[in-house]
Design brief:
The chain is of the alpha/beta class and about 950 residues long. The chain contains 22 helices and 51 strands.
């Protein structure tokens, strides 16, 4: 037997630990986070867990506790009192199984660990959904104001005698000023849930008040009369208004107070609820406001909720607008398109039913600079007084989905008055079925712009037997209707069938040449009264030839008993790869990074051209602009960068343009008074110097003491060169905060396209050519911003069309490499490398592969489909493989593309690994048994002598004779 010295024993112990460590891996993966019963059970919401970690143990935290369905209020209160030591109850709900409270951390964990609650979450703050302060345009608007009563086609119903009389609309907001002349006699009750006050006795008049202004504006849009103006009124001027104050003077509340307001409205007999409040949604499976909305619908109340003002980015619907059965309202510009700030769908549900992607919003109504009543003490910045000379401070024009929501509540009141037995489902289905299709994406417009008269006709004509399908068209956001020819699979979308009648056997039929790419599941189902869902998906195979690029049309119909009950339009464009725009984020300052979500419209236009966007680093992890990092870019976008470019970066960008790249530079604000630029102006000018364009130290767009800009161009003293495709249908541009450009007349490659003045001294748009590349310079980076777009539309400017032109103008001359993919098996087997390369006149392609050892691989290249290039070789080893592509077209344009691909070590066969693990565990078990025998054992242990091999051991003092020594 070989004696075990101390080092050998240590090694054996380490081997033993390694063998049994898989048993403890799940515990190790927990990290250093404190594991409590509540977090282990998943009852404590992540947001609340984070809040507990930030607070002292005895700090009361606002919470909302969810109980199992069917738990009555008495039982809920009893459980709270039993487990919630130190907890203060705020409200025990009866419409939904919730209790709101203030509780310290120990009480929260006790509740979460009790096994009697389903979730304990943070009672989050939410706010009124208005936009930022509205601009006062320097340019005269060419948009004639269209009041919502006209945009929503309300007057025919008025003329029939339907103005909302006898219908109660609960407006949950910051209150309402009862002294407004247009609200006299309209308010039948007032409840203040913020301060615990109310006036529910209309016999002596209602003392309703507002301490923010948002509530007065929303209440007026529901049921304000025209007593003060004789011109405009709300949508349902005969409706009874139940004012429930849930917002404080700052326009904020919490989810539980919102839910309490919904419960109060139901208890007080409201027919309709208007809710222009919301916040960011966290899908934890339970949301007291969402569930309260759904329960209110179950109780027969039509609930109308604002979509939110976080557009045009996808997946931005606010809670409780995410609720399936409420009417979620987006904002339009009059009877035109959807405005930029209006939140978009889909709603992505990962915890709460129905799981998956759900279409929202449901409908839109005017939400831009809408005329409405005003509380005289409201913020002038948020609610500027309209025509104060004539009307004092009684009226305003303001924007937001908050303004659109009460209009739909008013439409619902008109329909309810005409059809007294109308339920929430039929109301919603009729409003959606009667909407005017704006031909925009369903995730922006829902069914379209509401039309009150047409909704009434739908009910009349169909005897309330209505079945509609949402979305109206597919594919839809967030990916849009364009798909790449290289192969693409979209996440399934839950198509929603809203029906007021039951159909036993509904078949989904897909027609048209687009049908080859569309999948549905199930293809046959029962259509319920209410909501039925099926999934629709899009799959583009990866073997389409170039000739397959183009537009594909068709429709999806729901058929029952040979009758079509609902239709969805299918409209798909398959595009080739148009290039890659690399957006510089590395040279932004940490204090002022420009989020790419600021310009969603521009990215959508790029996507339509087959152009994708990517980012060069970020302020926290900057990446230099070098030949290597610019290698896969076709265009490089510099926008609002504060950090100067290094000389080697400028050289690399110049070479990028010389070789055929597109450089887009967006200047930023220069303050002529202070002589300060908000961007790295000197670095910009060094970058632009070879192209004959310079950023001028000159202010454009800025209006002191306001958030507005200025329109330039035709009619405003400017000059436009319409000979360039960049200026097609562009006569005016709206500049928020910019500088100007000078164009060197002696440089024949430089050209000004848009000038602020007739002398062509200050340019706003200029282009240049250099080598095989192109340069575009714009004087204001915010020209791309989504929020600037609706300002531009209001001022009659053509910013949106300009963005579309810019996207079309980006037309790389060099071959475009979409991607390189390596499919590798085990070492020694054949590896398959595929490169996707696009060019109309591609002449020559060469691909070289270098192994991890630096050796060139012998390869044979083949081409298929007109854009796929294949290389096969034997995989000699794992490691980093360098792939270099040199592509040349018939015009002599050359593109060099490099990519490093890691081939990992092939994992051991799973069954073999399992058998080895079992054997090792068996050995470990025997070893543990041996240790136990030695430790507790069957024979008396020998007295050991310390040997030289044991000198590493630290002597431990006997009990009572000193503490153990410290290990340094």
């Amino acid at each position: 037997m070989i004696p075990m010295t101390r080092p050998i024993k240590i090694q054996a112990l380490l081997v033993l630990l390694m063998m049994i460590s898989p048993l403890f891996a799940p515990l190790i993966q927990q990290g250093t986070a404190r594991v409590t019963p509540s977090t282990r059970l998943g009852v404590l919401s992540p947001t609340l867990a984070d809040r507990i970690a930030e607070e002292r143990d005895d700090t009361p935290i606002p919470i909302i506790v969810r109980f199992p369905d069917g738990t009555d209020p008495t039982t809920m209160l009893s459980i709270i009192e039993t487990y919630g030591r130190g907890l203060t109850v705020r409200h025990v709900f009866h419409l939904v199984p919730y209790v709101s409270a203030y509780a310290p951390a120990r009480a929260i964990h006790a509740l979460a660990s009790s096994g009697l609650v389903t979730q304990v979450g943070l009672d989050k703050r939410v706010s009124a959904l208005e936009t930022a302060p509205e601009p006062v345009f320097e340019a005269e608007s060419n948009v004639t104001y269209l009041h919502p009563t006209e945009a929503l086609d309300v007057r025919p119903l008025w003329e029939q005698g339907y103005n909302g009389s006898g219908i109660t609309v609960a407006v949950l907001d910051s209150g309402a000023w009862g002294g407004h002349p247009d609200l006299q006699g309209r308010i039948i009750g007032f409840k203040d849930l913020v301060n615990g006050l109310d006036d529910m006795n209309p016999s002596d008049g209602i003392d309703a008040y507002d301490d923010n202004g948002h509530g007065t504006a929303t209440a007026w849009l529901v049921g304000g009369t025209d007593n003060g103006t004789g011109i405009y009124s709300g949508i349902a001027p005969g409706a009874d208004l139940l004012i429930i104050k849930i917002l404080d003077e700052d326009g904020t509340t919490d989810l539980s107070t919102m839910a309490q307001g919904i419960e109060t409205a139901v208890d007080l007999g409201a027919d309709i609820i208007s809710l222009s409040v919301g916040g960011q949604w966290e899908d934890t499976g339970e949301d007291v406001a969402v569930e309260s909305c759904e329960s209110a619908v179950d109780a027969g109340v039509t609930v109308v909720v604002a979509a939110g003002n976080s557009g045009p980015a996808a997946e931005t619907i606010a809670t409780p607008g995410v609720a399936t059965r409420v009417i979620t309202v987006g904002a339009s510009i009059g009877d035109g398109g959807v405005i930029a700030f209006s939140s978009r769908g889909p709603v992505v549900r990962t915890q709460s039913a129905p799981l998956g992607r759900i279409v929202k919003p449901d409908i839109v109504a005017p939400g831009y600079e809408v005329f409405s009543g005003r509380w005289p003490n409201a913020s002038v910045a948020e609610y500027p007084a309209y025509n104060s000379t004539q009307y004092g401070g009684l009226y305003t024009r303001w924007s937001g989905t908050s303004a659109a929501t009460p209009q739909i509540a008013g439409v619902a009141a008109l329909l309810k008055q005409k059809f007294l037995t109308l339920n929430p489902l039929t109301t919603k289905a009729a409003i959606m079925a009667g909407a005017n299709d704006l031909r925009q994406d369903p995730m922006a417009q829902g069914a379209g712009l509401a039309n009150a008269t047409r909704a009434a006709e739908v009910i009349q004509e169909t005897s309330r037997m209505i079945t509609i399908l949402a979305p109206r068209r597919y594919p839809t956001l967030p990916e849009g209707r364009n798909a790449f020819i290289v192969g693409e699979e979209r996440a399934p979308l839950n198509a929603t069938v809203i029906s007021t009648v039951r159909y036993e056997n509904t078949e989904v039929v897909v027609n048209g040449n687009v049908s080859q790419f569309i999948t549905v599941s199930p293809s046959t189902f029962l259509t319920r009264v209410g909501y039925t869902f099926f999934t629709i998906g899009l799959t583009i195979p990866d073997n389409l030839p170039l000739s397959a690029a183009g537009r594909y049309l068709g429709n999806l119909t729901l058929v029952t008993d040979s009758n079509v009950i609902a239709t969805m339009e299918l409209d798909l464009a398959i595009t080739t790869f148009g290039g890659r725009v690399l957006i510089d984020m590395s040279h932004h300052s940490l204090d002022d990074p420009d989020d790419p979500s600021y310009y969603s419209y521009f990215k959508d236009y790029l996507r339509a051209r087959g152009i994708v966007s990517s980012w060069l680093g970020d302020p926290q992890n900057p990446v230099l602009a070098t030949d290597s990092t610019l290698g896969d870019a076709d265009a490089f976008l510099v926008m609002d960068t504060e950090v100067p470019y290094a000389p080697e970066e400028i050289d690399a960008i110049h070479q990028f343009v010389e070789d055929g790249g597109v450089l887009i530079v967006l200047s930023e604000y220069y303050d002529s008074e202070t002589g300060q630029a908000s961007f790295a102006i000197d670095s910009y000018n060094e970058l632009l110097q070879p192209y004959g364009i310079q950023c001028e130290r000159y202010t454009t767009g800025y209006v002191p003491f306001s958030d507005s800009g200025i329109a330039y161009g035709v009619g405003y003293g400017g000059v436009v060169d319409n000979s360039s495709p960049l200026m097609d249908d562009v006569e005016r541009l709206y500049i928020l905060m910019g500088s100007a450009l000078t164009v060197d007349e002696n440089n024949s490659n430089a050209r000004g396209l848009f000038w602020t003045d007739s002398t062509k001294r200050h340019a706003l748009v200029a282009t240049a050519t250099e080598g095989k590349g192109q340069v575009l310079v714009i004087a204001d980076g915010s020209t791309l911003y989504d929020t600037t777009i609706y300002d531009a539309i209001r001022s009659g400017a053509d910013n949106l069309k300009f963005l579309e032109n810019v996207a079309s103008w980006i037309n790389p001359v060099r071959p475009r490499v979409y991607d390189v993919i390596l499919e590798a098996g085990e070492i020694g087997e054949t590896a398959n490398l595929t490169a996707y390369i696009f060019d109309d006149d591609l002449e020559d392609v060469r691909i070289t592969v270098t192994t991890p050892l630096g050796e060139l691989v012998n390869t044979t290249m083949t081409e298929t489909l007109g854009y796929r290039y294949h290389v096969n070789f034997t995989m000699a080893s794992a490691g980093f493989y360098d792939v270099t592509i040199v592509a040349r077209d018939s015009a002599g344009n050359v593109r060099t593309f490099t990519k490093t691909i890691l081939v990992p070590v092939e994992p051991v066969d799973e069954s073999f690994a399992r058998n080895v693990m079992i054997a090792l565990l068996a050995v470990a078990g025997l070893a543990l048994c041996y240790v136990a025998v030695i430790k507790f054992g069957v024979r008396r242990p020998r007295v050991r002598r310390r040997s030289e091999d044991e000198e590493w051991e630290i002597p431990i003092a006997p009990p009572g004779q000193g503490a153990p020594p410290e290990i340094e």
